[in-house]
Amino acid sequence: MRTLLSVLAIAVEVTMILTLVGVSNGTLDSTAARARGVGADIIIRPPNSSALSALNSTPISDKYVGWLAGQPHVAVATGTAVMSLGNGTLDSVTGIDFPSFNRMSGGFLYLSGGDPQSDTDVAMDEYYAKQKHLRVGDTVQLVNHSWRVAGIYEDGKLTRICVRLPALQAIMPGGDGHVTVLYAKLDDTKLADQVKVDLKKQLVNYPVYTMEELTSMYSISNVGMLEDFIGVVIGISVIVGFIVVFMAMYTAVLERTREIGIIKAVGGGPALVLQMLMRETVLLAVLGTLVGILMTYGTQWLMRHAVPASLTQETVYVWWPIAGAIAIVGALLGVIVPAYKAMHQDVTEALSYE
C-alpha cells in the first residue's frame, strides 16, 4: 500500500507538470492558429502595444485601412476592433468588416447561420457557443448589450466572437472611426519582409510584423509570467515528490531495520544498503512517471468531454523525459536522509529491533 501510494503521488506530480505545460502550449498554439486563419501576410498594431495584444493601447484611425490598401503589393487590407468583455476572463469581442475580411480569409466556415447582417447580430465559434450553450437565434449579453446569435462557425480563424465593425465602434470608448489592428494580404507572400520594411519606414511608431514573425512569438518563452508560473509549479512538484519519497523511504527504513542489520551482519556494507534504497527509489519514480503520463490522457479526455469547450490541452512529448527527470530528482532528494540513517545503523541495535 505504501508503494502504491508513493507511485500515485509521484504520478500526480508528473501529471500536474504535463497538464500545465500541455494547456499552456495548447492555448498559445490555438491563438496562433486563429491568427494564421485570417489569411494576412502583414499585421500592424497600434503604438505602445505588445506583439501578443493590442488591447489597452492607442487605437488606429480606420482611414489607414484605405491607405494600407493602396500600398505596393497589398492585394487586400482590412481593420478590426477588439474590445475586452470585461467579465474577469481573457475573452474579447472583435468588430469585423465582413466583405474585406471574407476576401482576405475566405470567410468563416459556418456550422449554422451566417455572417451578422445587422448591428445587433453576433457570430461566434463552436468553442464559445458550446461553452455558453448557445444556438443560432438565441440572445446573449455582451459588453452590456443584447445580441442575437446569427451564426456559429468552426474555430481556428481570428476570434471566438465577432460583430459588425460599425456596431462595435459605436460602443467602444473612443472607438468611433478607429480600429485596433490592421491586416494586409499581399499579391506575393514572398515579399512580406520587404513590404514590412517599407511600411515601418512610413509608420515609425507602429509595430509591424509578418504573420510568420507574429505567430512564432506565441510560445511559453515569450510569455514571461506564464514561464515563471510553470517554474513555480515545477518547484512545488519537486517539493511534493521530495516529501512523498522521504516519508515512504523513511518508513521503509524503519520497517527494514532488522533486515538491514542482518545484511550488515553477513558482510553487506553501507554501499549495498544505499544501492538497495536507491534502486527502489528510482523504480518508484519511473513507475510514477509512466502512470503520470497515462493520467494526462485522462485530463485531456475530461477537458474534451466532461467540460466541453474548456481549455485546450496538447500532448507535449518533449516534456515527458523532462517531467520524468524532475520526478526522479525529487525522489532521490527524498531518500538522502533515510539512506543516511540506514547506512549508519548499529548492527547490534538493528538485530535486536522489534
Give the fraction of residues assigned to helices.
40-55%
Number of strands: 12
Specify Rg, calculated over alpha carbons.
29 Å
Q: What is the average of the pLDDT values?
A: 85
> Which structural class fits the helix and strand makeup?
alpha+beta
Describe this structure in words.
The strands form two sheets. Strands 1, 3, 4, 5, 6, 7, 8, 9, 11 and 12 form a ten-stranded mixed beta sheet that branches. Helix 1 packs antiparallel against helix 8 (224-255), helix 1 (2-36) packs across helix 10 and helix 8 packs parallel to helix 11. Strand 3 (74-84) and strand 4 form a beta hairpin. The model has no long low-confidence stretch (mean pLDDT 85). The two termini are 21 Å apart. The chain is elongated, with a radius of gyration of 29 Å. It has twelve helices and twelve strands. The chain has helices at residues 2-36, 63-69, 98-105, 126-132, 165-171, 192-202, 211-216, 224-255, 257-265, 270-306, 319-343, 347-351; strands at 42-44, 60-61, 74-84, 92-96, 110-113, 121-125, 139-142, 145-153, 161-164, 178-179, 181-186, 208-210. 53% of the residues lie in helices and 16% in strands. It folds into two domains: 2-27 and 223-351, no CATH class; 46-206, no CATH class. By secondary structure, it is α+β, with helices and mostly antiparallel strands.
Descriptive key words:
12 helices, two-stranded antiparallel ribbon, elongated, 354 residues
How are the SSEs placed, and which strands pair?
Elements: H1 2-36, E1 42-44, E2 60-61, H2 63-69, E3 74-84, E4 92-96, H3 98-105, E5 110-113, E6 121-125, H4 126-132, E7 139-142, E8 145-153, E9 161-164, H5 165-171, E10 178-179, E11 181-186, H6 192-202, E12 208-210, H7 211-216, H8 224-255, H9 257-265, H10 270-306, H11 319-343, H12 347-351
Parallel strand pairs: 4-9, 6-8
Antiparallel strand pairs: 1-11, 1-12, 2-10, 3-4, 3-11, 5-8, 6-9, 7-8
Helix pairs in contact: 1-8, 1-10, 1-11, 8-11, 10-11
